[in-house]
């Protein structure tokens, strides 16, 4: 987790925002104790309050999750990247079954990107090409059927 926070601070910490929408977000109360907010805030590189497809499918996600730098995500690495999940949420191995195309029990970059693309499309309920916090939070722990 410390590595993750340092990486996010290094990569994302310089994302300043000058738009009026960001000013409003800066004054809005943030649910700091909400794990979904932590993930959303981590991914929102430009701090505009909306995750673009690029932010959601960024290299930072894979690099941060791939703790041993072998270019593969194991179930343990995926679980660590997901963080605490609701008790009824699917486990990391259960999540991997649908997207592990070569059935090696791990996800490579292409498999992860495919999974993130499917999930992004599913979460983007209003099909505007971006995820706001409510859209992302609605999908935390939910199963996505390919």
From TrEMBL:
Query: Which SUPFAM superfamilies does the record cross-reference, listed alphabetically?
Result: EF-hand
Which range is the signal sequence, renumbered to this chain?
1-24
Note one Pfam family from the annotation.
Answer: EF-hand_5
Q: Where is the EF-hand domain?
A: 57-85, 115-143
InterPro entries attached to this UniProt entry? EF-hand-dom_pair, EF_Hand_1_Ca_BS, EF_hand_dom
The answer to keyword Nucleotide-binding applying to this record is no
Q: At the top level of its lineage, which domain of life is listed?
A: Bacteria
Question: Which keywords are on file for this protein?
Answer: Signal
Name the PROSITE patterns on file.
EF_HAND_1
Q: What SMART domains does UniProt report for this protein, alphabetically? A: EFh
Query: What is the protein name for this chain?
Result: EF-hand domain-containing protein
Organism of origin: Lysobacter auxotrophicus
Q: Upper taxonomic classification of the species? A: Bacteria, Pseudomonadati, Pseudomonadota, Gammaproteobacteria, Lysobacterales
């Amino acid at each position: 987790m410390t590595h993750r926070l340092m990486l996010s601070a290094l990569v994302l910490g310089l994302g300043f925002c000058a738009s009026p929408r960001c000013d409003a977000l800066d004054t809005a109360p943030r649910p700091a104790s909400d794990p979904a907010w932590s993930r959303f805030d981590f991914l929102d590189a430009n701090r505009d309050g909306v995750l673009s497809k690029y932010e959601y499918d960024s290299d930072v996600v894979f690099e941060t999750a791939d703790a041993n730098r072998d270019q593969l995500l194991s179930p343990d690495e995926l679980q660590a990247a997901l963080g605490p999940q609701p008790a009824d949420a699917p486990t990391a191995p259960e999540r991997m079954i649908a997207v592990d195309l070569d059935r090696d029990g791990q996800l490579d970059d292409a498999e992860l990107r495919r999974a993130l693309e499917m999930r992004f499309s599913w979460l983007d309920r209003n099909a505007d090409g971006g995820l706001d916090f409510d859209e992302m939070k609605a999908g935390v722990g939910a199963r996505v059927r390919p």
